[in-house]
Give the backbone structure.
Amino acid sequence: MPEKNIFKRIIDREIEAEILFEDDRCLVFRDIMPQAPVHLLVIPKKEIPSSNEIAEEDAELIGHLFLTIRRIAEEQGVAESGYRVVLNCGPDATQTVRHLHFHLIGGRSMSWPPG
Ligand code: AMP
């Protein structure tokens, strides 16, 4: 049996995380190495390794993740000040966890382009 990745283990409550929101399709928790005052990870419960593996049938799920991002950004008080949603896919983008996730980053001003 292939080893579970760390986010699947968080979904299954095998390791702890500071979970802010959960429903039947997704989970939102704090990044363990925050890069800003607000740094959350929004993940589907479905095991999708990266954006390369998003299927047609996932379209509604991806929409649900973005509606969750919008709502959590409001709750965290960054909807007006602004925030960044980051998806790293593959080695050049430094993806380290092979489970689709969106970083929701805010609470400070940021620069562009990213490093
Ligand atoms: P990425 O480089 O896009 O794959 O980002 C993975 C993110 O997961 C990094 O920002 C890590 O700090 C974060 N991370 C790794 N392990 C944990 C964990 N156990 N709990 C919360 N965040 C984690």
Remarks:
- The chain has one domain: 6-106.
